[in-house]
Amino acid sequence: MKVANTVDGKKIIAADSAPAKAICPACGGVLTLRSRQTMNNGGRTFFWRHRSNLNRHCSARNRPIN
Alpha-carbon Rg of the chain, whole angstroms? Predict the structure, then answer.
């Protein structure tokens, strides 16, 4: 996800200057800031991700749970 909440409840966009942890707006779970390399120009894109195996049934997750 690209937008998360800070501890104060303010919205924050995933970027290299964002804090390492945030709060999920859908379930209130802890999110960590992640990044990956883009294929087109070698730049980096940032996103928030739930901690591994926590909040597995959150509606904000974008992959199905097996």
Answer: 12
